[in-house]
Amino acid sequence: MPPPKDVVKIAVQMVGAIPQLIDLPQTKPLAAVLKDVCNAWSLPNAEHYALQYVDGRQTYITESNRGEIKNGSILRLTTSPDQEAERLHSGIQSNNSDVKTDSLKKLAGLSQDVTFAQEFINRNGLKQIFHIVEEGNATGEMLAHTLKAFMELMEHDFVSWETLSAAFIKRIVSYVNTSSVDAAVQQLSLSILENMVPTNRLLFDLVRKEVTLDRLLTHLQATNTQLQVKAMALLIALLLAATDAERRDMMDYLQEKNIRQFIHKNIIHSSEPLGDEMAHYLYVLQSVSLNLCERRMRTSMDPYSQEQRELLQSLRQTAFESESEASSGNFSTERRRSLCAKEFRKLGFTNNSNPAEDLRRAPPGLLALDNMVYFSRHTPNAYSRFVLENSSREDKHECPFARSSIQLTLILCEILHVGEPCSETAQAFYPMFFGQDHFFEELFCICIQLVNKTWKEMRATQEDFDKVLQVVREQITRTLSLKPTSLELFKTRVNALNYSEILKLRQTERLHQEETLAVPVLELRERLKPELLELIRQQRLLHLCEGTLFRKISSRRRQDKLWYCRLSPNRKMLHYGDVEEGACSAPIESLTEKIPVADMKLLLVGKECLHTKEKSSGKQNKDILELAFSIVYDTEEYCLNFIAPNRYEFCLWTDGLNVLLGKEMTSERTQTDLDVLLSMELKLRLLDLENISIPDTPPPVPKPPSNLNFCYDFSQAEQ
C-alpha cells in the first residue's frame, strides 16, 4: 500500500551514528520531528539541532521549505542555525588566525542559506565583517572568505547597501585600485562595487570618483578572464546608472582610449571562447553607445538655428562649390536664392525653397543631417560623385540623395534598435561594431552608396523610391545576419548581394512556397507530419538528457548562481543542482536534487510563473518573462523555476517538458524545425519530378479492358 501523500520517506545521518530511516509526516511540527530524531540517538536539547540537506547547497530545513523534501532525501542532523551563527560569530573574532580563517570560510558557505543569514545578521555579524575589512589586517585567503561571506549575506536583502560606511567602501575601492592584491579579492571587490552603483546616487558618484575608467581599463587588459568580466560588469553598471551627459562623457573618454579596438582584438578575437556573461556586457556596451544617437534622432531641425543652417548649407557648398561661386557673384539676392533652391533640389530635398522642412520629421531628425554632413566631409569624392551623377540624369531617374539619406538613417536606427532599452539577457552584438570608431556614420557611408548602386541596378524612377529602400533594407539585414567581423567585410558582402541576387533569393523562396502549396504536396505534408513530429520529440528529449546550465536571476542583480538541470537517460527523473562558476556541464551523479517525471503536473510559462512576479522591479523588462518557465510537481504548491539563457533553450526545454507531460509542443521553434524537416523531406521525395508540373487532382484511373486475352499463359510454355 503506498504511503499517504503527506508522508515522505527520508534518511537522517549524524557523524558517528547509525543513520535513521524515518517516515516524515509533513503535518507534524518540525520541532516534534527533531525531538523524535534526537531521542532515537539519546541527544538532549533537541532545540539546539536542525535538519540540513546532505548534498547540494546544504540548506537548513524550516517550516517554510519543508514541503520541498522528496522521498529518498538524505538529511543530516546538525547544529541549529542560531547555534552555528553564534559559534561563527565568536570564531571570526578569534585572535588565532587559523580559527578565524576557518570560521570565515564556513561562514561564506553557510551564508547562502537564508535562515542562517538571518540569524547571523541578527547578531550584528555584518558589523564584525565590516570591522575585519576596515582594519585592513586581513589579506589573501582570509580576506577573500570575508568578502565572499559579505556578498552572500547581502544577497538576501536584509540590509540595504546604502548603510555601508565610508571606511568600508574606501577599503573595497583600495583593493580594486591596488595591483598587488590577490585576483580573487579584486574580483569580489569589483562585484561589491557593481552591486552598490545602481542602489544610490551618492554611491554611484563615490565609485565613479574613486575607481577611474583608466583603472577599469587596466583590469580589462588582465589575462584573468574572470577579472575581465567583473571589470566589464562594473563599467556597464556605471554607464547604466549615469545621466545622459555623464554617459556621453564616459563614452567619449573610452573612445579616446581606443576601448573598441582593444575589445575587438583582445576579447572578441581572444584565444579563449567568449562567455555568455561577457557577450551580454558587449551587447549592452554596443547598445549604450548606439543610444547616444537617440537625442539627435528625436530632435527635429530648428530652421532658426544658425549652427544647423550652416550644416545644411555646407552640403550644398561641398557639392556645388566651384559652380556656385563662379556664377553667383554678380547675381541679385532673388537670383541667388533661386540658384540655391535649384541646387538643393539637385541634392534631393523635397522642399527646395526650405530644405529644413525635410528634416522636421523625428525620427530620424538631426541624425540624418549629421550623417549627410559626415559623408560629405569624410568621403567628399564619393559624395560629389553621388550628387553630380544623379544631377546629370533625367529628373525621374535621379536618385535623391537627401531623401534617401533621411530614409536610410531611419532604416539603420530600426535595424540597430537605436533608442530602445537594453535587454537584460540578450547577447547579440556585432563584432564589427568594436572594430571601428564612428560606427553608425561609417555604416551610413557604405549604405548610402549602396542605395545609389541598387537604384541604378533597378533602373528606378521616383515612383520606385520605396521599393528601392525596401531592397536596401533587405540587403543590409541579410548581410548583418552573417555577423561580418569588420566594416570592410560588410561592405564587400553587401555589395556582392546586388539586386539580381536579391531577386534570385526571393524567386527561390517564392518557388519553394508555391511548390509546397500544390494540393498533392499538401496531402504529402500531412502524411509526413506525424513521423517528423516524433523525430522532433525525440530530439527535444535528447536535449533534456544532455542538460543545460541555468542562471538564477535576482531582483537586484542580473545574475546570481549557476545551476544545472538534465533528464535521466531512462527519462523517468529530472536531476538538478548548483554548479560552480565556469562549469559547462555537470555529470548526473553530481546533481543531488531530483523530481520524478511521474510527479510533474503542469508547465507554467511567462507571466504564469510565480518567480517572475517575485523578481519584478522597475528595471525588469519583458525579456525575463519571455524566458521564464516553471514545473509544478507533486501538488500545485511546489515549483521548480527556470529562466532560460536564451530563446532557443526556452523553446527546447518547454517542448521537452510538454512531451514528458504528454502534451503538444507549442513553441515557435517546433514549427520552424517542422517546416525545415518537411521542406527537406519534400525536396527529396519530389527530386524525380523536377520540371514536371504536378496536377491538383490525380489522373483518372483507366477503365478495365474488355478482355484479358493479352495475358500470357505460363502453363503452356512449361509444356
UniProtKB/TrEMBL annotation:
Superkingdom: Eukaryota
Molecular function GO labels: SH3 domain binding
GO-annotated biological processes: actin filament organization; apoptotic process; cell motility; phagocytosis
Keyword Hydrolase set for record: no
Ranges for domain ELMO: 307-480
SUPFAM superfamilies registered for this protein in UniProt: ARM repeat (SSF48371), PH domain-like (SSF50729)
Alphabetical UniProt keywords: Apoptosis, Phagocytosis, SH3-binding
Keyword tRNA-binding among UniProt keywords: no
Function: Involved in cytoskeletal rearrangements required for phagocytosis of apoptotic cells and cell motility. Acts in association with DOCK1 and CRK. Was initially proposed to be required in complex with DOCK1 to activate Rac Rho small GTPases. May enhance the guanine nucleotide exchange factor (GEF) activity of DOCK1.
Name this protein carries in UniProt: ELMO3 protein
Gene that specifies this protein: Elmo3
